[in-house]
Every structure is written in structure tokens, then in C-alpha cells.
Amino acid sequence: MLVLGLDTTGPDCSVSIVDDATIYAHISRNIGRGHAEVLAGMVAEAFETANLKPNDIDRLAVCTGPGSFTGLRVALSFALGFALPRGLPVVGIDALAVAASTREPEGVQFMSAFRDVRRGEVFYGEFSNGYAMGDIRAMPREEMERLNNIVQFDLVEAETIDTRILAWLAIDRDPATHPAEPLYSRGPDAKLPGGKSL
Predict the structure, then answer these.
(1) Please, which residues have CB within 8 angstroms of residue 122's CB and are 6 or more apart in sequence?
(2) Strand 59-63 vs strand 121-128: parallel, antiparallel, or unpaired?
(3) What confidence category does residue 69 fall into, taking pLDDT thresholds of 50, 70 and 90?
(4) Distance between alpha carbon 40 and the CA centroid of its chain, in Å?
(5) What gap in Å lies between CA 118 and CA 81, rounded to an integer?
């Protein structure tokens, strides 16, 4: 099964093409902003590097966040647009699950993972055998440190997403239980007239 993995949730724009045994292409660039302008070109470059065509892909994997509203939607929109005319499944996996699996790819021990979403907050989750133990959740950094002192799991930061791991994880994930739905860092700051929240 050939999987195209995509991530635009942070400063990196990253693309990988893998199957269960081979990395055919992996391109990752720290661009800060402007993911929408470069992602399609990087995907084309990955196909050229791998000597593959878009119709060779069997499944897509996309990092669902947490991330900014604009950033994470770039890869999500691209993945859905690529998949729809081809009838391909799209698997969404959050950044914490990827980070926990990057540290322990075989999923043989308990892990905690977090992602800094600024303003003194993080998203935090605990993992067993590569799967989340409950929902990941937003909290102050101090609360995360308190919780992790209690469970005493190894703690890894989901700072950079390895789309090779992301794509590998998607091989065994069911799109029905891992949908490509965005996990935003927080609600929008925009207000309606009169200061009302959206």
C-alpha cells in the first residue's frame, strides 16, 4: 500500500511517500509561512523523486494538528482534493500520536506527548502501544507538568512532524476512526460586531 503523507501544521512543510517497507520520497522544508504556495510543488517533486504517478497512491495521511487555522487546513484541503476524484481514503492523525510513535515506533511502551500552542498552553496526551489513552486536551503548561509527574511517562514534544512516520501509521489506521478533521489550537480570535464571539 502506497501512502502519501502531508503536514503543514507548523513551520515545516513536509511530504513523504512510503509503503510498509520502503521510503520512496521524503521532502521537508522549514518555511515558516506560505505552505499553500509550496505544497503542491513539493508533492510533484516527491512523485518525481519516487518515479511514481499520483494514480499509484492508495491512501493519504494528513496531520490534523493541533495547529493554526490557516496552516493545518492547507494539507487537509490538499489531501481531500487529491483523494476525492480518485476515491481514496484519507487518514487523519494528530501531531501528538506521530511524536509518540517517532520516539517509540513499535509502540511498546507508555508515552506522553505535547505540543506547545503558545499563550502558556499545550495540547497533551498519553499513549499506550501507539494509541491515545483518552482524548488529547488543551491545558496550561503547568498542569501538563503536574499530570506527567503523576503518570511518570517519557515525555516527547511534537515540534516537528515526520511524515514518514505519519504515513506508516496511516497504513494500519481506519479512516472511519481517524478522520481528516482539523484540531485547532484554539477558537478564532475574531469577534462579531458588538464584541460578540463567533
Answers:
(1) 114, 115, 116, 138, 139, 140, 141, 144
(2) unpaired
(3) confident
(4) 17
(5) 30
| Higher local confidence (pLDDT), 188 or 19 | 19
Q: Exposure pattern of 71-94 as b/e (b: 16+ CB <10 Å)?
A: bbbbbbbbbeebbeeeebbbbbbb
Average confidence score pLDDT of the chain: 89
Residue 66: is the preceding peptide bond cis (ω within 30°)? Answer: yes
Paired residues of 112 in beta bridges: 126, 155
What would the mean pLDDT of 128-154 be, rounded to a whole number?
87
Q: What CA–CA distance (Å, rounded) separates 108 from 66?
A: 25
Distance CA 13, CA 27 (A): 8
What pLDDT was estimated at residue 83? 97
Max Cα-Cα span within the chain: 57
Question: For the whole model, what pTM was predicted?
Answer: 0.88
For 143-148, the CB contacts below 8 A with 24+ separation are: 144/114, 148/112, 148/124
Domains of the chain, earliest start first: 3-186 (3.30.420.40)
DSSP assignment string, 9-35: SSSEEEEEEE-SS-EEEEEEEE-SS-H
